[in-house]
UniProtKB/TrEMBL annotation:
Domain PD-(D/E)XK nuclease-like span(s) in chain numbering: 191-418
InterPro entries hit by this protein: PDDEXK_12
Residue ranges of the region described as Disordered: 34-109, 145-189
Organism this protein belongs to: Phialemonium atrogriseum
Compositional bias segments (type: Polar residues): 164-184
Protein name per the record: PD-(D/E)XK nuclease-like domain-containing protein
Ranges annotated as biased composition (Low complexity): 64-84
Length: 432
């Protein structure tokens, strides 16, 4: 068998072939010997002709009336479908539906009879958001001033920490001279029993969240990038060590069909995160114990379909949007979502025999770096939403501390007030 010579340069041959194709644009690129180039009549672009001089072509529209009708119907259907998903139209539908329509009010219009615990929570969050509560350890004053570009940060931002022999070195351990976080913490800090090492680690993590926020803004990142590098880390940092409360990413969790809105224009909604009551292991050794196994109330303890069916009630719903999105869609999603949440809680109260008022539910909307808390309640046949308490922004290091403090306070509400509501319901012994 004759041998095949490989002495030619393959790259040179390919380049020559490409040059030949470029030289003759009429040669088809498909390797089909029966394919021949066909001449097509070129029509001038509309931009080359004055619109007033163009003439209508009725014959084209008369070619197939049936096809035109189908196309028109399809276009209308598609347009209507897109319109129903419009955030503005969805918000309008929420406000005009007959099933507990949404009534948005300013937080200053919140009535005094809403409950002392709710009023106290609102006041605490406003204090945090206004910068009137000390949320930063005094140890990191210089670091915060340097990162914020302030010559002197307000004293009300900082709270004292116990003084030890390691205090004078903790600032250097937390931040280097360039402002970046350093790993050179002293051995005496690692052994410090007053928790100073934990504060340094916390400061390092918040510093990283602040840096990631600037990166997301600079790159104009989409929502998943914000969630991965900013929102989830600060949620984890805020709930760290809290045995009674945990957070979950529930982006893929749908509302159970029986709690969805009957209005087809509203239907189902999803949100990104939730703060949940945790099952305490010392009180329930069986992880399958839940409201669905209660002889009194044959209902799950949440209105959504969690991947593992965990018996953990949802307390605070959180929706996030990047700066690429408008500011209407997120609050509309939360409003529709919390209406489904109330349907579930109302059914629980009904099955329990009544007598327990529905709780006021905080909902959190995160728009880019900014975090705000609204409050929803059922009142006079409406879903009233009081908005908005801006608690902070991860765009600054001080803002990261504010957001963390607000989430810690919400975690306390979940544990105490929301947990107490479940105890009054008398149907979930795992909450304490």
């Amino acid at each position: 068998m004759p041998s095949i010579s490989h002495s030619f340069d393959s790259s040179t041959w390919i380049e020559s072939w490409i040059e030949q194709l470029m030289a003759d644009r009429d040669v088809p690129l498909l390797f089909n010997p029966t394919l021949t180039p066909t001449k097509t009549s070129k029509r001038p672009r509309h931009g080359d002709i004055d619109d007033d001089l163009t003439t209508p072509r009725p014959a084209r529209y008369a070619e197939s009336q049936d096809a035109s009708s189908v196309s028109s119907s399809s276009t209308k259907t598609s347009s209507a479908s897109r319109g129903s998903r419009s955030p503005r139209k969805k918000e309008f539908a929420l406000r005009t539906t007959t099933n507990f329509p949404v009534d948005r009010r300013d937080i200053s219009d919140m009535p005094q009879d809403i409950g002392e615990n709710t009023l106290e929570l609102v006041g605490d969050l406003q204090e945090i958001g206004n910068g009137d509560r000390a949320v930063i350890p005094e140890t990191f004053r210089k670091s915060v001033q340097r990162q914020s570009g302030l010559r002197r940060a307000p004293d009300r931002w900082f709270h004292p920490v116990p003084r030890t022999t390691a205090t004078q070195n903790s600032e250097a351990a937390a931040t280097g001279s360039s402002g970046s976080v350093s790993n050179t913490d002293q051995e005496e800090d690692m052994l410090d029993p007053d928790g100073r090492t934990m504060l340094i680690c916390q400061h390092w993590r918040l510093h990283e969240i602040w840096t990631n926020t600037k990166t997301c803004e600079r790159k104009m990142e989409h929502e998943p990038a914000w969630n991965d590098s900013v929102h989830a880390p600060i949620l984890a940092e805020s709930i760290r060590g809290h045995n009674a409360v945990h957070y979950r990413n529930i982006t893929c969790c749908r509302v159970s069909p029986e709690y969805r809105d009957p209005d087809p224009l509203l239907g189902d909604n999803k949100v990104d995160y939730g703060l949940f009551l945790s099952q305490h292991p010392s009180e329930h050794n069986n992880p399958n114990d839940s409201l669905s196994h209660s002889p009194d109330i044959l209902l799950p303890c949440s209105h959504i379909q969690l991947s593992d069916g965990a018996p953990t009630p949802l307390a605070v719903s959180i929706e996030t949007k990047s700066l690429r999105a408008d500011g209407i869609g997120g609050p509309s999603q939360l409003a529709n979502w919390v209406r489904a949440h109330f349907r579930h809680l109302a059914l629980l109260v009904e099955r329990a025999g009544g007598g327990v008022p529905l709780p006021v539910l905080p909902v959190v909307f995160v728009y880019g770096a900014s975090w705000r808390v609204d409050f929803a309640e059922r009142r006079d046949g409406k879903t009233v939403i009081y908005e908005s308490v801006v608690v902070g922004s991860t765009k600054t290091l001080q803002g990261c501390y504010q957001v963390r403090a607000a989430l810690v306070r919400l975690g306390e509400w979940v544990d105490k007030e929301f947990g107490e509501w479940w105890r009054q319901l008398g149907s979930w012994d795992a909450v304490r």
